[in-house]
Amino acid sequence: MAKKKVNRKKQLKREWAKLKKAGRERLEQVVDVAETVVDKAVEQVKEAVAEIKEQAATSLEDFQALPELEAIPASRLETFYQAGIQSVADFATWTEKDLVALKGIGAATIKQLKEKGIALKD
């Protein structure tokens, strides 16, 4: 039986096409993995930014605009803010005695806070 003559040029073209296809498939896999990694990283950054925003102190204007502190004079709120009370939750770490020790804060202000439902440290 005679050996079939092989066209080397066609054979090389086929091999080249297989390699290109394999390369594209591998490239697509790498791109998919990279997109997944990037998506996870973006999500982590978004979560970190949200956490930082939650922890960041609000501005004095934001603190004064809180609905729970409505009707409390701005000067009293400024005193609280300068003392480190920058959210309603921060009041829970202060006792009545600590608050009264602040300049301009008296029993009437404490009464207003309690009427607003703001909890103080016992």
Automatic annotation (TrEMBL):
One of its GO terms (molecular function) is nucleotide binding. InterPro entries: DNA_repair_Rad51/TF_NusA_a-hlx. Gene3D superfamilies: 5' to 3' exonuclease, C-terminal subdomain (1.10.150.20). Pfam families: HHH_5. Residues 2-62 form a coiled coil. This is Helix-hairpin-helix domain-containing protein. SUPFAM superfamilies: Rad51 N-terminal domain-like (SSF47794). Keywords: Coiled coil. It comes from the Bacteria. The lineage of its organism: Bacteria, Bacillati, Bacillota, Bacilli, Lactobacillales.
